[in-house]
Amino acid sequence: MTDTPQNIYDDPAFFAGYAALRDTEGGLNAALEQPALARLLPPLAGLRVLDLGCGFGDFARAVRAQGAASVLGVDVSAKMLTEARARTDDPAIRYEQAAIETLALEERAFDLAVSSLALHYVADYAGAVRRVAAALAPGGRFVFSVEHPMCTALGGGQWHCDAAGEPQHWPVDRYGEEGRRDTRWFVDGVVKYHRTVAGYVNGLVEAGLVLARLGEPEADPAALAARPDLALHRRRPPFLLLAADKPA
């Protein structure tokens, strides 16, 4: 038995904080995660795309602009989808409110499935991956990012700093103990699920997918020149990205 899916994004305080972060694009997502995810995508022309945890629909609109044939964006949050629909004017993009854990998908209906920083909220990762694998056409690709297991191991992990406030080290403990972590992000009570790198990779393999790439993105020289603060995140990776293919 798994936990009931949480819909923290419809909490007003959480949503306000998240929306402010995304609209300023000042976070690590824009600097590290999104460029790394884009590098794992196949050529998009003509593809049927599934976007799991679509949020405001930014990815859906971007891949349509790059030639994707259609996009189904799925999110558990009504607030997210209201905003996504308001920002989207494209009949080839469809939004559906559903939890990743319970989403029903047609077999072989998509050529590409993508999930950006959503699967660490999902209790039944293995079940979600099996459903995505079944929904991919032969030769299709699944690309996703999650918070790195070094960050989720302790739940609300944070840098240990010296008396002057300078980061000294990032603590890692309970790494091999996969499962629920109750954390704070904008509000208390945000539920995430810690998995090891092996857990993420083996879930793909056990679903019949073939691992194509594993990424732990760092800032490139140009990004470091623009934002020297990103050098700190070379000391521990904030994100894990995986790409896996369904055999043709």
Question: Keyphrases for this structure?
Answer:
single chain, 248 residues, alpha/beta, Rossmann fold, 8 helices, 11 strands, globular
Give the topology, please:
Layout: H1 12-24, H2 28-39, E1 48-52, H3 58-65, E2 70-75, H4 78-87, E3 93-97, E4 110-116, H5 125-135, E5 136-147, H6 149-152, E6 160-161, E7 167-169, E8 179-185, E9 187-194, H7 197-206, E10 210-215, H8 221-226, E11 239-245
Parallel strand pairs: 1-2, 1-4, 2-3, 4-5
Antiparallel strand pairs: 5-11, 6-7, 8-9, 10-11
Helix pairs in contact: 5-7
Main sheet record: 7 strands, mixed
Instruction: Measure the end-to-end span.
Output: 34 Å
CATH class: Alpha Beta
- Spans where pLDDT lies below 50 across 5 or more residues: none
The CATH topology label is: Rossmann fold
Category by helix and strand content: alpha/beta
CATH architecture: 3-Layer(aba) Sandwich
**Helix content percent band:** 25-40%
The CATH homologous superfamily is named: Vaccinia Virus protein VP39
Query: Could you tell me the number of beta strands?
Result: 11
SSE string = HHEHEHEEHEHEEEEHEHE
DSSP summary: helix tally:
8
Can you tell me the overall shape? globular
What does the radius of gyration come to?
Answer: 18 Å
Q: What is the count of distinct domains?
A: 1
Determine the strand fraction and express it as a percent band. Answer: 25-35%
Chain-averaged pLDDT: 91
Pfam family, one: Methyltransf_11
Keywords: Methyltransferase, S-adenosyl-L-methionine, Transferase
Domain Methyltransferase type: 50-144
InterPro entries: Methyltransf_11, SAM-dependent_MTases_sf
